[in-house]
Amino acid sequence: MNHDQVKEKLLAIEDAPLEFALIFSGKQSRKVNGLYKPESREIIIHNRNFSDDNLLLYTAIHEYAHHLHACRRGGSLSSRAHSTEFWAIFHGLLDLAEKKKIYRDVFADSPELVELAEFIKKKYLLENGSLVKEMGKHLLRAHELCSAAGARFEDYVDRLLRIPRVAADMAIKMYQYDLDPQVGADNMRFLAGIRNEDERISAEQALIKGKSPDTVRSGIHGRGEEEDPQLRLAREKQRLERTIASLNRRLEEVNRELETLDR
Question: How far is CA 196 from CA 2, 84, 178, 202, 211, in A?
Answer without folding.
Answer: 48, 21, 14, 10, 20
